[in-house]
Amino acid sequence: MQNLIRMMDTDGTLCVIAADTTETVREMHRLHGTAKVVSAALGRLLTAASLMGSMLKGEKDSVTLKISTDGEASPITAVSDSSGNVRGYAGRNDVVLPLNAKGKLDVSGAVGKNGTLTVIKDLGMREPYVGQVPLVSGEIAEDVTAYYAASEQTPSVCGLGVLVDPDTENILHAGGFLIQLLPTAMEDTIEKVERGLENIKPVTTMLFEGMTPEDICRAVLPEFELNVLDSAEVGYRCTCSRERMKNALRATGKQALSEMAEDENTEVTCNFCNRQYVFPQAEMQEMLAE
Ligand SMILES: [Zn+2]
User: Residues 6 or more apart from 179 whose CB is under 8 A from it?
Assistant: First the structure.
């Protein structure tokens, strides 16, 4: 099922992307066993990564979002490929906090408020593009908006949501949208966007009501006439492999390799999907000898 869509207004002044990431976040929850507030925090960051990844141009491009703070769940990492397929993990999965003053999951409490959002775009150049901004709120959507304003000088609006069943901890709905003004934006474009956003419902409410990503794009931009650019099916995808793990081991250097080669087996676990890779002593020694 197509669960991510990109649209542009007929005047070419802005584009909007929306995604239903419910299945993506469910898979994340299944793999990591995240407690409710971590499901919400990592789920939002994965959704943001998916929206941002879908804008990458090169097939092999990728974008990494990393939040490093004083919060209990920090650091939180999400990576997207150029199609919007994502993977990620949190520093801790078992953070439990009381609900916030609004009676909602305290995402900024788990994420932390004092820290940074780092965006690393690997665009196939020699060096990746790296942008970093101080966290604004730790609620993630505002932080993504702040990143675009400060690092890419692109006026944006981002909305993200993850709805968790309070009793079963199951993921009920997850999704988000990202509006970006293009350089061709006119003076009244921002006003029209802001007016439209005054009365919108939370993303998870729209999903609960059965709205599709296309419906969400149209709902958040009621004053614009939108055309579909493209759509895709995105999900949680880990890209780990035995060869990639070997490369990671090689990168630890000769000293570390020789220490590991003393053990009968070296076990490496993928942070993104918890898959275990076992390298017997002989294979480690082979790598050391290379
Ligand atoms: Zn993996």
Answer: 14, 15, 16, 156, 157, 158, 193, 220, 221
According to DSSP, residue 202 is labeled: P
Split at pLDDT 50, 70, 90, the class of 50 is very high
Q: Which of 232, 253, 275 is the last residue in one of the domains?
A: 232
CA of 181 to the centre of ligand 1 (A): 35
Q: Are residues 161 and 252 in the same domain?
A: no
Over residues 154-200, the pLDDT tens digits come to 999 999 999 999 999 999 999 999 999 999 998 899 999 999 999 89
| 271 Cα–ligand 1 center, Å | 7
CA of 211 to the centre of ligand 1 (A): 32
Instruction: Quote the domain boundaries for residue 53.
Output: 4-232
In angstroms, what is the span from residue 85 Cα to ligand 1's centroid? Answer: 13
Q: Is residue 139, in this structure, part of any structural domain at all?
A: yes
Task: Give pTM, 2 decimals.
Answer: 0.95
